[in-house]
Amino acid sequence: MSERGGRSRHRDDATDTEAEGKSRAERKERTRQRLLEVTLRLIEDRSLASLSLREVAREAGIVPTAFYRHYASMDALGVDLVDDAMRPLRQMIRDARRGRAAHSDIIASTVAVLARQVRDHPDQFRFLTRERYGGVAGVRRAIATELRLFTTELTVDLARLTAGYDWTADDLEMAASLMVAAMLTTVMDLLETDPRRPEDADALLDKAERQLRLIALGMGEWRSKP
Amino acid sequence: MSERGGRSRHRDDATDTEAEGKSRAERKERTRQRLLEVTLRLIEDRSLASLSLREVAREAGIVPTAFYRHYASMDALGVDLVDDAMRPLRQMIRDARRGRAAHSDIIASTVAVLARQVRDHPDQFRFLTRERYGGVAGVRRAIATELRLFTTELTVDLARLTAGYDWTADDLEMAASLMVAAMLTTVMDLLETDPRRPEDADALLDKAERQLRLIALGMGEWRSKP
DNA sequence: ATTTCCGGTGATCACCTGTACACAGCGCTA
DNA sequence: TAGCGCTGTGTACAGGTGATCACCGGAAAT
């Protein structure tokens, strides 16, 4: 282990090739991003709770004390991490549904979008699923809130699709959350597949699609009792 | 905080009223149980990873070194905890289904059994759901294995119920795992309800029942494509 | 041009961690 | 009855932890 930054003021990274960051605000934002990124990388196979402030600071190339210039604690960083991960995802899924609302197969396209997102940012999803129930209270609450937003959006979509079949709001929410549960389980299972065996992931995605279709089929027969 | 067992050889508990445990094997088993029980209590609102060997030993009334007489590490204890929690549960659910196989409402009785089990042993379920994805690799694998057993049993049940409708084995598994996913989500949500508001729990259970019925409804319309 | 601000430094605090070691005392077995 | 085995003890060590401190130096504000 070489001493990192023992004497030099800044990290000498490959990224420091030219632009060292001009304004102070930019610099700060840069290290903040570095903290988030490093944290995400470090918890690839551990929980956030088992990660120490010092470890994150060390890996980000700053001294432990400097961490406090950005977050009051690791928990605060965790909360920040939650919406950094959720915001782009929600946007994506929303686009996938809106963009093809008229299109034939909403189910297939939604599953596809989610699959790509999981494949491209596995560490973010790992973080979310891992801390969803296992994390500290603050992080857990942040994730729960985001997921509720998610379910709500889906409920609205379903309301549009079932217009005229007098579904109860409660039943709509029931169906929506079943779908979300199925997708979340798929995500968690996806993350545990061996990346060298893409056929496993494909099988999971196929299963997810069939599950959503099964639910849709059930919805066709469902009658809300008021 | 009073010093626990500073001088006395054994803990002076209410349980030590008479039977102090006779054989040596019994004694050992007793402290082992105490370790498990204490661990379960301590992780009520933290992850297993954030729990230290010393803390568990301290709370169990033994010195840190003595811990090693029972487990090589906290992880090993975690794995032990998994099947201590799963074994009785699996038995219960199996009974609930077998016992009433002919009975009208399998769904209602299964949900009821699960609800009671969760209410009676919340800490075990908290442990399972929390470590299912958040825990160490060993514990995670142990839980995954147990859940797969669970899904397999349900698949067999479904096969019996759908006999004559030529369901693919794959589709049966798909439906079974959707049901399991729904139930697991319910369990996790149940654990986060405020115990002082039992109506919230009731609402969740009602939702779970409707979700299972929705799936059953879908299964009635489903046709496997071979 | 001077002062203020602020992200980062390095030393230090008291504490907690896992594990190693030698040893004690009881129960089981030879 | 003698003695080995095994659970539990007490002490110790080397290292990691979160938090606080006074301080530095360059960018920003005046």
Summarize, please.
Chain A is an all-alpha fold and 226 residues long. Chain A is 69% helix and 0% strand.
Key structural traits:
mainly alpha, DNA-binding, 226 residues, 69% helix, 0% strand, homodimer, disordered N terminus
Radius of gyration of chain A: 21 Å
Oligomer: homodimer
Which class of secondary structure composition applies to the elements of chain A? Answer: mainly alpha
Beta-strand residue fraction of chain A: under 5%
Ends distance of chain A: 67 Å
What is the β-strand count of chain A? Answer: 0
Largest sheet of chain A: none
What are the low-pLDDT stretches of chain A, counting only 5+ consecutive residues below 50? Answer: 1-19
The ordered H/E elements of chain A are HHHHHHHHH
Helix content of chain A: 55-70%
Greatest interface (CB-CB under 8 A), with counts per chain? A-B, 38 and 38 residues
- How large is the count of helical segments of chain A? 9
Q: What's the pLDDT, averaged over the residues of chain A?
A: 88
Shape of chain A: elongated
Mind explaining what this structure looks like?
The structure is a homodimer of 226-residue chains. The first copy, chain A, has 226 residues and is an all-alpha fold. In chain A, 69% of the residues lie in helices and 0% in strands. Chain A is built from nine helices and no strands. In chain A, α6 crosses α8 (169-191). Residues 1-19 of chain A have low confidence and may be disordered. The interface between A and B is large, with 38 and 38 residues. Chain A binds a DNA duplex (30 and 30 nucleotides) through α1, α2 and α3.
